[in-house]
Design a protein that fits this description.
Layout (H helix, E strand, L loop, with lengths): L2 E5 L2 E4 L4 E8 L7 E7 L6 E6 L6 E3 L7 E6 L4 E6 L8 E8 L13 E2 L3 E6 L1
Parallel strand pairs: 2-11
Antiparallel strand pairs: 1-3, 3-8, 4-5, 4-9, 5-6, 7-8, 9-10, 9-11
Amino acid sequence: QVQLVESGGGLVQAGGSLRLSCAASGRTFTRNSMAWFRQAPGQEREFVAVITWSGGNIYYADSMKGRFTISRDNAKNTIYLQMNNLKPEDTAVYYCAGSSRILPRSVSSDYDYWGQGTQVTVSS
């Protein structure tokens, strides 16, 4: 099994930046596609971005394109989410997730394991 631990969340002013990390333990990490989702209070979990195991395919939700960048370092068993020009509506708990699918979709059900989440709060 793979375990995921997110870090890097916090409080930031609008227009600021944060870099989230997700450290994975387990032998299958490098063969798995990895993604970030987020969930705001009272909202459904929302897809943010996904990266395939080689990093060759990356997809973003439309609202994150140009502001967020997903990346991974398989040697460190870690994925990242660089978030720039943050807005108050980006406030949410951010989760990383892994999938054994070659190219998982932007739906939660395509992902096999999840981290516990890290809170991101953007003040106006």
